[in-house]
Design goal:
With about 240 residues, the chain is an alpha+beta fold. It has two helices and 14 strands; from the N terminus they run αβββββββαβββββββ. The N and C termini lie far apart (about 75 Å). This is T9SS C-terminal target domain-containing protein.
């Protein structure tokens, strides 16, 4: 008789545990549904193309400033499609369960494009555990890859620019070749803000070798833009 009572007690204890788990999971799912219906995630604050006026020799990147209201959140994946001069970028954000507004800055590599006018359409998708792709924001920008006839044709000799060391801590050195003795160097952060602008006047035409002080820059990825007259070349480097 006692054995039977013990077995019944174990059975009801196990049943109660399973019911509790089901109720907790149901509550979490309902909570996620509530978040999904109550908040608009994510929202594009702005998009920037870097460099702002690319040439066919520039690697184009998209910088996205996105507001999310649930944390922790991160960019899980992205996808780029190109057709008929339209670039479509899908960004997939995974959201947490805590209410906390913050802005993410993400950089997407778009690659190289020939001289033409382009429309970029960006879609910010978001999803949570148990709530797939419940909301998205859409925005677009137009940009132009400048043609060679407006003076952005890059000479092969000038395009052979070497940056070192990379990553860099203090002095960023560069070497290149140019048939003129004037060279302008600009450094941009991923927000598109110019943080360094410097001109170099070399006494001899041909090989140019010089350095830039980047010790005061914050850690992160930067774009270094070299221009000589109408010729522009962009290179990346990492500040440690």
């Amino acid at each position: 008789m006692k054995v039977k009572k013990v077995s019944q007690k174990k059975y009801f204890t196990k049943l109660l545990r399973e019911v509790t788990i089901i109720l907790v999971l149901s509550f979490i799912s309902s909570l996620n549904q509530f978040y999904a219906q109550s908040y608009s995630h994510p929202i594009f604050d702005s998009l920037k193309i870097i460099p702002a006026n690319p040439s066919p020799n520039d690697n184009v990147e998209l910088v996205c400033f996105t507001t999310l209201s649930l944390s922790p959140a991160y960019l899980d994946s992205s996808k780029v499609n190109f057709q008929n001069n339209q670039i479509e970028v899908d960004l997939y954000y995974f959201l947490g369960n805590f209410m906390s507004d913050f802005v993410r800055v993400d950089t997407i590599d778009l690659g190289y494009y020939s001289a033409n006018d382009y429309t970029l359409v960006a879609y910010a998708h978001s999803y949570m555990t148990g709530v797939p792709d419940f909301n998205k924001d859409t925005t677009f920008i137009n940009f132009t890859v400048l043609r060679e006839d407006v003076g952005l044709k890059t000479e092969k000799t000038f395009s052979k620019i070497n940056l070192y060391p990379n990553p860099v801590k203090n002095q960023l050195h560069f070497t290149t070749h140019s048939n003129t003795n004037k060279l302008e160097v600009e450094i941009y952060d991923l927000t598109g803000k110019r943080v360094v602008s410097q001109q170099f006047n070399n006494t001899d035409k041909g090989k140019i070798q010089n350095s830039i002080d980047v010790s005061r820059l914050r850690e992160g990825l930067y774009l270094c833009r070299f221009s000589r007259g109408g010729t522009v070349v962009t290179r990346k480097f990492v500040k440690e």
